[in-house]
Write a structure and sequence with these properties.
The complex is a heterodimer of chains A (104) and B (252). Helix content of chain A is 38%, strand content 35%. By secondary structure, chain A is α+β, with helices and mostly antiparallel strands. Chain A has a single domain, classed as Alpha-Beta Plaits, CATH 3.30.70. In chain A, strand 2 and strand 3 form a beta hairpin. Chain B has a single domain, classed as Metal-dependent hydrolases (TIM Barrel). In chain B, helix 2 runs parallel beside helix 3 and helix 5 runs parallel beside helix 6. With 252 residues, chain B is an alpha/beta fold. Chain B has a seven-stranded parallel β-sheet, with helices on both faces. The chains are: A alpha+beta (104), B alpha/beta (252). Chains A and B meet through strand 1, helix 2 and strand 5 of A and helix 1, helix 7 and helix 9 of B.
Amino acid sequence: MKRVKRRYLALQLDCEGMPAEREFIDAVWTAVTKLYGEVGASLTGLALIDFDVERKVAVLRVSLAELNMLRASLATITSIGDKEAAVHVLGVSGTLKALYGRAK
Amino acid sequence: MQECWVAAMTRAFADLHLRVNPKDQQATQKLITKAARFGYSQISIPFTSKLNEEELTKLKATCSEAGVDFVSRADFYPRSENDLTHFVRKFRRRFEVICITCDSKEVARQAAKDRRVDLLNFPSLDYHKRFFDRAEAELASCNLAALEVDVKPLLILEGPPRVRLLMSLRREVATAREFHVPVVVSSGVAEERLMRLPRDLASLAFLFGLDEAQALDATSTSPAAIVRRNREKLSNRFVAPGITVIKEGKSS
């Protein structure tokens, strides 16, 4: 079986207050499902790797083939929970080591 | 953390449509600062036909303080072809970018025919008023006009209205690409929260059929080319396309 190539995205949350991890990942899944439907969302292989509430930084994992799909979906997020918010993609990398290395 | 990622960007990005009211100085200042922090090199806030030189100077000063290049732009919603011609004649030499929002087919055709028009914009919510078809694209292609797409409606709409808008945009962008009409992707936002990083803005273009390189061009090289061309034309040294004054001789 062919190995699935993945990408890791570092995200900056732009919102007032501190959103819960659950609220954030729900907002991401909702955005992807709204744009691409349930079948599309299932192809992304989306997973939350890290969530730093203090710095409002999150790291997501996605399959490389669906990276553009996820980026477009993240850009359409306008609220997390019931608060206005935006999610900015700070960087994309093939390994977590490189991603964290660039952020330092 | 954000600053170190933004500093790593290699392209010069432009957002030619920040829809803030220039009279609201506080909101304008905030938006300009945020655009600079996000790494935009060029931004534009549209003026309507009521030009106020003082506001324009103030905006330029605010932008240069923030380290962003301000592009003067005028937006117009002409009711007829004569109205359009009158506006363009009056304002072409005073603004670097002229955008026409086409409300009727006659105006859309005239705007595409007119070499002085830079951007063609269409109402996002009224699908019967999106006149960017093959004939329009052919005219625009001959006259160097570009198709402007605002992404704000994609952020605020949901469900069937967004689906309809995406269908129209996909068709129009495909037509534009067929006739080599440049596509310019702008934000069209007035609120800070709806502003996106340049690459996120470009990623929204994936939704209407642009690939990564085309999407990045639509937010960087295409708007920059329009601004460069017009600045050259508006400079004192410009004579005609391809002819500029390099050195002036002494009059005997």
